[in-house]
Amino acid sequence: MVLTPGAGLSSARVAWRHSLRFRLAATYSLLALALIMLISLGVVTLLLSRMDQQFGDRLNDRADTLAEAFTTSGAGLGKTAGGANAYTMLIDGDGNVVAASPILRNFQKAPYPYGEQSRVNVGETSVRAVKRKAGAFGTLWVGLPEDDLIAARQSAASALLIALVFTPLILLLVGWWVGQRALSGLQGAANLADQIDPTRSLATLPLPAREDEVHRLLSAINRLMVRIEAGQAREKQLLGQIVHELGAPLTVLKASLRRAEERTDDPEVRRAALVADELTFTTQDLMQLARGQLELKLAWHYIPARTLQERLERLVPGTAFEGNWTGGILCDPDRLTQAIRNLLANARRAAGSEGRVELTLEERADDLTFTVRDSGPGLPPELGERIFDAFVSGSGSSGLGLSVARQIAVMHGGSLSGGNHPQGGAQFVLGIPSAALGDED
Question: pTM of whole model > 0.85?
Fold first, then answer.
């Protein structure tokens, strides 16, 4: 697998709020919480309903038993209606309490106070009550304290509230952990994909052992990458064939125009010769793009800087040469000429026929720098470093010149940077290592 130098796994990390793992965990938590809420509410409601029903059955059974004792031939005569903690009262036809359990003795010999209420408060105790006919004795009032039922309701509500508070957090943490385990294969594949160098050869991603959805996704990506590489190979082959077919006619045309220019000194012929040179360099740019950087080899020569200046002066007339052109340059003359010529041609295109284009050569201890500056409007700020991408142009050109120029600079062990000059216009700086040769060399 071909990896880019210095690429780390951290480059594939994303913010937690954009993470698929977080979204899955959050979705899982919300769905689980909704289900738990519905189920818990149903269970608690059913449980409380059953408890309430059992409480009512117990109260009715007690009332029926006491009423039967009063109506059965004096079975309840002379007995207390319930125990010491019983809530019972016997009410006569005039609405007065004629007998009461000890806990309700304050109501005895007094009017019945509760009317038709089924729930009353006796002191601090909530009591649910029913009435039964007690034969000739009148009406029997029977109550049962609800403290235990109310406590059960409060306990169920508290447990449900605690569950609703802590369950989402627990589910989110569990979902995050499960998502991390489930998506670990996809995350590892994404990290490896981030490290693949697209400028060299495409590489397939390793597949997990388990044939799940991640396996299918990575398999599809691998098949796509194979098709992309095959398509790129066909495009390069076609581009190389086109350039090859154009090369021979252009060579003959250039030679013919050059001889005609020498014989006639006609400006129209000279202009046509420059156009032929433009087409030649465009085909060279296309050939470089088709071959790729790794397939090209430099033919190193040590040439006088004046020789390079003369070639550039002929290719891009009207260029102002500044700096020191008396030294020597270790380079591939054809490739370096191509790179600097591309910079000058772009500068001339931006500055126009009346504008100024200057090329400055500076020699330092370790490197040589060629600075191309023009009087044009400058580079579009929105392009930035994309100006060096193939087929991206800010001056109406093919968009290959700057890309090829940077590639040639890197092949020489140097660099190419661009920007806008503080006083206006665009400025490109191409640097290559200095030959640093002595007299004997």
Answer: no
